[in-house]
Structure formats: C-alpha cells, structure tokens
Amino acid sequence: MRVTFTVNGRRHEADDVWEGESLLYVLRERMGLPGSKNACEQGECGSCTVRLDGESVCACLVAAGQVEGRDVVTVEGLADYARQRAEAASAGGTAAESASVSTSAADEQRWAAAPAADGVPLSPVQEAFIDAGAVQCGFCTPGLLVAADELIERNARPSDADIREALSGNLCRCTGYEKILDAVRLAAARTDHAEAPGDGNGPGPHSGHGPAQGEVV
Amino acid sequence: MEFLRPARWEEALAAKAEHPGAVPIAGGTDVMVEINFDQRRPEQLLDLNRVTELHEWETGEEEVALGACVPYTRIIEDLRRELPGLALAAHTVGSPQIRNRGSVGGNLGAASPAGDSHPPLLTAGAEVEAESVRGSRRIPVEDFFTGVKRNALADDELIKRVHIKKASGPQQFSKIGTRNAMVIAVCGFSVALHPESRSVRAAVGSAAPTPFRALAAEDFLGAALEEEGLWDSGGALPPSVTKEFAGLCSAACNPIDDVRGSAAYRRHAVGVMARRTLGWVWDDYRGGAGSGAGRAAGDEGGSRCA
C-alpha cells in the first residue's frame, strides 16, 4: 500500500509498504531517515521515539498505515522543530501555526550530531547533551533527545522526578543516566533563561529556578 | 495482509462483520509487538484511529463513558478526579510513549491477566459496551474476562466504550514490578470504598487466569465496617480486620509460577498490597470526612510503592 504523511515539515510518500510494517521501518528503510533507532521492536527501549501529531510515541509500535495524513517529527527534524517553536513562542503564536518552514530531505539525511557549517544549528537539547557529556555510544541518544525535548516543551522547569518520569521509557546502557539528567536540567535551564526576558506570563527568573548552569557543566 | 481504515464507526462494524478474523488495532502497543515478532499474521488489521468517537469520553451524572481508544495519558490528566483508581493504574502502564498510545479498550481486547486497567475497572464498577452490526450490548466487566487472553466478545463485535462508575469514595491501585516503569505486573491490586452503599470492592490482577474480585474479602470487610460502626465513626481500622482482609485477598488468588514471579510470591504480595492499599483508602476516607472522592489520586498522580 501507499502511505503519505508529513515528516519534519515535508510531505513524504512511501510505496509498496507492507500492511504490517511499522512507522519505524518506513522511516529508516524507505525514507532514508535512520536517526530513529531500531532496537527492541516492542516499545521497551524508547530508541525509536518520534513525535506523532506532537505526542511522543515509539515508532516501532505505530503501524505505517496509521500515520496516513499525519505529522511526524524525527530527530533529524528536531532542531528545526525546536527553532520554530521558539520563534512561535517569541511571536506569541504556536509551533503549529508557524511550521511552514520545512526541512529538506537532503537536510534530514545529512543530519549529524554536530552543527554543520551550512546546516541547521542544533536544538537546545542537542547542545546540552553534547555539553553535559550525555552521549556515549549514542544509540539511545536520538530517542532521548526527542523525549527530552517534548518534556521541556510541556514543562519548562521540570523537577528531577519529572525528568526521570519523562525518560522512563528510554533505556541507556552506557551512561548510567546521570549525565543525561544533567543534560536535560541544562537544556531546561537554558531554554527557560532564553524565554524568561519579557515573558509576562511565566514566573520571574529568580523564583524557584532549576539548577544553575555552573552546577551542571 | 489487508489494512482496513474505516473513517466511521458504522464502517468499522461492517468491516468486522465482513472479516471476523480482522484484528482491531488502536495504539498498537500489543498488536504491533506480535506482528514485529512474527507471532501474529492476521488476514486484516482494522485500524480504529480514524473513528473519532472512540477517542472521546463523556462525563455523566453517575458514570464516565470512556471511548475505547482514549489513551492512558488523557485518563491520567483529565479523568483522575472521576476515576482515581483507573488513573493511578494508568500511570503505572509502560512509559509516557506507551501511555500516549495505549488505551483501556486495547487492554480489554487483549484481556491479559496482567492488564493494569482491569482491577480498577472491577473495583469502580464498569460495563463494556460491545457493538456489532447485530446490535449493542453492555457486558459487566466481571463477566468480560473468560480466560487467559480471552474475553466475551463475539467475532463480529468491537468495544465502543467502557462505562465506568464515577468514584464516590477513595480508590487505590498498587502493582508489583522490578522498576517503576516498563513492567508487566507481577501482580496488581485495586481497592475502592463506596461510602454511599457502605461497601468495599477489591480486585486482583495477574494472580489467576483472569483478573477477579476478591468477593469473600469484600464481604468480610463490609460486614466488619458495619459491625464496628466505622463508616459513621470514621475510626481506625482494627489491625485484626486489616489482617483478615489481606489474608482473604491472598487466599482468593490462583496464581502460577512464571518468569515474573512464583505463585507463592504472588500470593504473599497480594496480601501485602491489600493491607497497604486498604490503609491508604481508609486514611483518606477518615481524613476526607466521608467524601474522599478525588483525593485518592493525590496531586502527585503516581501510585505509592507497595
């Protein structure tokens, strides 16, 4: 069957998709987007985490046919997604309203964990993972980045318990998680700082803040 | 394999009537695992994601009519006041990614003895609304589970909604697992106080071929509360009552040894969970001056460790 849906702001089409195929397989094997990792294929590890219409899901458990006409963000489009969200926030709109800029297929496929000279800059979460040393073998990283970015979008000042819960579906067998927690605290603190000035709605920058950046890096 | 994508409920029923072997798929958190691992190759997958009413719920005077595909995340965030026991159980399901997709309808369809939503449905009081082209019927949740991974649905029926009584008193849920996320219950337990009818309901998961209510324990506790006048006095539960309740819950189990735990451990753990959760709901009832509804879930949202 043919499946058509939006990935990272751009319409993609896949042909000859087997009816029992997962979204993860379509992304990796048919669309050339191997950022979402294939490990457990049963929703246990979180390394295939993507956003489906804004929600974090395991791409291995979504049937390809279920995403027809829907909107998917993978780690390849995360930087763009975060940038559009930040721009929309500063313009007072929502990410969805401003999601007109799309990642090109070439950009998606060229994605690497370092800011390419001509590429899209990394998202705050990606930068924080690098700065905090939260990446070792890197296999779990894409799923963690998507899950952590979703947490910070939903909760600008997550507590440690919030972070642990938000990442409870993502397994990492290298780091022991401490640096990952550091990275999420760092990303949240930076995002909060960046959005605090002139933000009349949120609490001021001095009330009940997350950990200072210096503690983390 | 065929992928059927009805846009409306009537089309879904027609498709299920035409293809009784079609496997309904909502969040995919069970079905896709079986397909990924080559354990299942149905002739048809029946995707229910486009049927919008399955993703909606209605809160009435007495009950919540919960669409079969409403994900656990929505129950936790939007229905924990009305359905505190179910919200607590929902919070122990998988991970955020799984809770964004998994649903009570899927849990019932899979009918695993370890389904987390089953004990709180049994203690709250619930009916499964099953429908086919032949008509609609409501199956009391007590009669829904017919065996390990078997339920009362006919081949042409689909679950449309689950009608769950709104809490009139404190409810609790507890679950044993090796960590606080991503575990299939070794065993689970739910208890609900119903002050308006002066009754107590207790249900056990993953300690018998099907989830079940511990009726002897319920009757014993109901009689003991009445006899001691505790519904009115709000007095503390005598330790002997709690102990007997826990023992009856434990004795009602018919568990097996498997990779997650031994039968003996399950029996023991159910007794411990029964004792602790009863303490929690009774404390809540006393503290809430008889109107504990909504407080049971607590603001932290998660289940306390048993």
From TrEMBL, chain A:
Residues 193-217 are annotated as: Disordered. The keyword DNA damage does not apply. Keywords: 2Fe-2S, Iron, Iron-sulfur, Metal-binding, Oxidoreductase. Residues 1-78 form the 2Fe-2S ferredoxin-type domain. PROSITE patterns: 2FE2S_FER_1, 2FE2S_FER_2. The keyword Cell division does not apply. One of its GO terms (molecular function) is oxidoreductase activity. CDD domains: fer2. InterPro entries: 2Fe-2S-bd, 2Fe-2S-bd_dom_sf, 2Fe-2S_ferredoxin-like_sf, 2Fe-2S_ferredoxin-type, 2Fe2S_fd_BS, Beta-grasp_dom_sf, Diverse_Oxidoreductases. Residues 208-217 have a biased composition (Low complexity). Pfam families: Fer2, Fer2_2. This is Oxidoreductase.
From TrEMBL, chain B:
Keywords: FAD, Flavoprotein, Oxidoreductase. The keyword Metal-binding does not apply. Coiled coil: none annotated. GO terms for molecular function: FAD binding; oxidoreductase activity. This is Carbon monoxide dehydrogenase. Residues 1-169 form the FAD-binding PCMH-type domain. SMART domains: CO_deh_flav_C. It comes from the Bacteria.
